[in-house]
Amino acid sequence: MKVEQIPDKITAIIRKGEGIDIEFKTAQFELSRDTFDSICAFLNRNGGHLLLGIDDDGQIQGVIDDCVQPIIDGIVINANNPQKLNPPFYLSPKVYEDKNGKKIIYVFIPESSQVHNTVGKIFDRNEDGDFDVTRNNEHLAQLYSLKKTTYSENKIYPYLTIDDFVDDLFHRVRSLASSQRPDHSWLEMSNKELLKSASLYRKDFQTGEEGFTLASALLFGKDEVIHNIVPHYRIDAILRESNVDRYDDRDDIRTNLIDSYDRLMAFTRKHLPDVFYQEDDHRISPRDIIFREVVGNMLIHREYNNAYPAKFIIEQERVVTENWNRPHGLGNIDPEFFSPYPKNPVIAKFFREIGRAEELGSGVRNTHKYCEVYTKGRRPEFIEGDVFVTTIPIPFIDTVTKIGGVRIEGATEGAVKGVIDAVNDAVNDAVGDAVRKRLVKELLLMIKQGGITLEETKNEFNIERATVQRDMKILKEIGFVNFIGSPKSGKYMATPKIISIVEKR
Q1: What is the dotted CATH code of the domain comprising 1-145?
Q2: Residues 437-457: pLDDT tens digits?
Q3: Residue 329 clears pLDDT 80, i.e. is over it
Q4: Number of Cα atoms under 13 Å in the Cβ half of residue 300
Q5: Going by DSSP bridges, is the β-strand pair 3-5/94-97 parallel, antiparallel, or unpaired?
Q6: Closest CA relative to residue 90, chosen from 13, 171, 160, 193
Q7: Model confidence pLDDT, tens digit, residues 122-138
Q8: What is the mean pLDDT of residues 244-266?
Q9: I want to staple 200 with a disulfide (CB 3.0 to 4.6 A). Which of 206, 216, 271, 303 is the partner?
Q10: Whole-angstrom Cα distance, residue 411 to residue 404?
Q11: Distance between CA 481 and CA 454 in Å, rounded?
Q12: Which pLDDT belongs to residue 419?
């Protein structure tokens, strides 16, 4: 059980006090009987924050140490038990402690796109807390209508079966989920149980109709199934550097959201440079952090019922994405003063479980934070409207540069010259011109992609494995390359010594 110090954002929630999206429970020894009333109400309304170990006045009483794990187990197990919470909803409690060692349990509960009940009772949320609306037919009709009309991801396809899904995706999803949480409950579930736990199978209690949803087809469906359900669905990834009237490279993506994410990230890494950045003694990739958020948000927050094609366009100085949207406001989003709104909460929650999305709203904040590093202060833009437009500035993406016989995409003339000069000054005179040119190309690709594997180098330059190893030995000896990771999957990474030469140009 991982225990961290209470972060500032949780302290701010506690200071704010109870309200429509915040609920405190003392729960020193066990879950209170009405805990799932609050969970159900949050799911049915706007989502919220549940904190255990805190009294009604916001004072930290703490959960008894020996009771923490049983309480967490009770939340997770009951949230996945349809007799306790129906439809089930996977929750991920976190444990924090204050400076005195008092432990609290925090559960973020997103807004659900379905109406939930706990032990047969349906709860809604208002400023005064949770209230039972089970017998309030008018209120229930409004609640069901709101969910049904707002969230197209919930549309039921009664003739969609488990055979219409890609079986291998279930193995990948379990692997991704276990990397986030080794004891994830999906590991022990059948494929259908996993889909039900992820709210991808539902029943409409107004009509009695039940089955797999649009979200399940988008996440797990075979390509022909997706095309049958949403024939207009596509994502157009375009590189437009030299040929501004057409394109220099393109990927027309019409597959499930899990593979779509991988293909968009591969397109990003292929065509965008990375920069060297160290945070808390670890080297990280600002490019990957930024575009994981951008790509994830494109897939999570799109309105899939609309035929407008999603676009991911890399230009010389920026990346622009366009996505059809159900706007919850208009104009430029300020990260300091915006309230995140879930457009497809089931898909969003699924992406969080497999580590491809963070807490709602973090994408805008992380993108602003790491753009400061990636582009040396140039800021991204998020413009909400019927079409949601994201603009991400990018560093030195110039037209193709050719200097001294070295042709490289995505590097400035000065960067190429700097690497050529550095290699020529450092390597032994016995190294021939052809090898020197290849060493420069390898270094520039390494910097651009944030590292390359032996196999990638072999394929990119059409050379033998032994040749790659000899090249890397030369570059290691002159202090330009390190090998990071395991022998099979590790990468050759450019050192700060050579990266600093590029950044100065």
Answers
A1: 3.30.950.30
A2: 888 888 888 887 778 888 888
A3: no
A4: 24
A5: parallel
A6: 193
A7: 999 987 789 999 999 88
A8: 89
A9: 216
A10: 14
A11: 13
A12: 82
Query: Is the domain defined by 401-504 classed in CATH 1.10.10.10?
Result: yes
Q: How far apart are CA 10 and CA 101, in angstroms?
A: 16
- Tokens describing residue 104: 């609290």
One-letter amino acid at 196 equals K
Rounded distance between C-alpha atoms, residue 227 and residue 239, angstroms = 25
In percent, the amount of the chain with pLDDT more than 70 equals 90
pLDDT band of 407, cuts 50, 70, 90:
very low
- Say what the pLDDT of residue 435 is: 85
- The larger pLDDT score, comparing residue 281 to residue 438, is at 438
Q: Which residues contact 452 (CB under 8 A, 6 or more apart)?
A: 442, 445, 446, 460, 491, 492
Neighbours of 4 (CB within 10 A): 10
Sign of CA dihedral 480, 485, 486, 489: negative
Structure tokens at 332: 């430029």
- Look at residues 147, 271, 118 and name the one whose alpha carbon lies nearest to residue 213: 147
Q: Residues 356-391: pLDDT tens digits?
A: 887 655 677 788 888 888 877 788 988 888 889 999
Residue ranges of domains in the chain: 1-145, 151-230, 235-393, 401-504
- Kind plus residue range of the DSSP H or E element containing 483: strand 481-484
Region of residue 260 (phi > 0: left; psi between -120 and 50: alpha; otherwise: beta): alpha
pTM for this one? 0.60
Question: To 5 degrees, how large is the angle CA 455–CA 460–CA 461?
Answer: 105
DSSP reduced 3-state for 113: coil
| Sheet arrangement for strand 381-384 | 249-253, 235-239, 310-314, 318-324, 387-393, 381-384, 331-332
What tokens were used for 307?
């035929």
Neighbours of 342 (CB within 10 A): 22
Query: Who contacts 336 (Cβ-Cβ below 8 Å, separation ≥6)?
Result: none
- Identify whether the C-beta of residue 273 lies closer than 8 Å to the C-beta of residue 447: yes
* pLDDT value of position 91: 83
Q: Which two tokens stand for residue 346?
A: 């089931």
Tell which residue, 137, 139, 138, 132, has the closest CA to residue 117.
132
Which one of 3.30.565.60, 3.30.1540.10, 3.40.30.10, 1.20.120.350 gives the CATH number of domain 235-393?
3.30.565.60
189's tokens: 């579930």
Q: What percent of the chain clears pLDDT 90, i.e. is strictly above it? A: 40
Cβ atoms within 10 A of the Cβ of 461, count? Answer: 15
